[in-house]
Amino acid sequence: MMHFVDVCALQDIPNGKHRAFVIEGVSILIFRINNEVHALENRCTHLDFPLQGGRQIGSTIVCRKHGARFDICTGKAVVGPAVDPVRRFEARIHHGRVEVQPGKTVVRHLFRKAI
Ligand code: FES
């Protein structure tokens, strides 16, 4: 059965920012956009560079390596060179705490991009 893992207090993530956590062995970025949270794997699907520290522009994050941009809400690559979506996880706010379902990938890689 899938379970939510307590990650941090909502106030630990400033609005419009993200923080990285290792949750059950997976590096996951938690993004806060107003009073919503979203969780993506901390890995660009272009060449596996960490997305942590990338510039957040609205509801997108830019990879620092080659500039691919991903939709934080869906994980979809919206600007290349990345094509595949980033894995996305269920995330929620529960009593002022951020919780993630690390075992439940919302969007899966259907195929790997040839390098
Ligand atoms: S590794 Fe992210 S755009 Fe190339």
How would you sum up this structure, described in words?
By secondary structure, this protein is an all-beta fold. It has one domain: Rieske Iron-sulfur Protein (3-layer Sandwich), CATH 2.102.10. It contains no helices and ten strands. The chain has strands at residues 5-9, 18-23, 26-33, 36-41, 56-57, 60-62, 69-71, 77-79, 88-94, 97-107. The strands form two sheets. The chain has a six-stranded antiparallel beta sheet, with no helix packed on it. A four-stranded antiparallel beta sheet has the order 5-6-7-8, with no helix packed on it. A hairpin with a 2-residue loop joins strand 9 (88-94) and strand 10. The chain is globular. The N and C termini lie far apart (36 Å). The relative contact order is 0.24. FE2/S2 (inorganic) cluster (FES) binds next to loops.
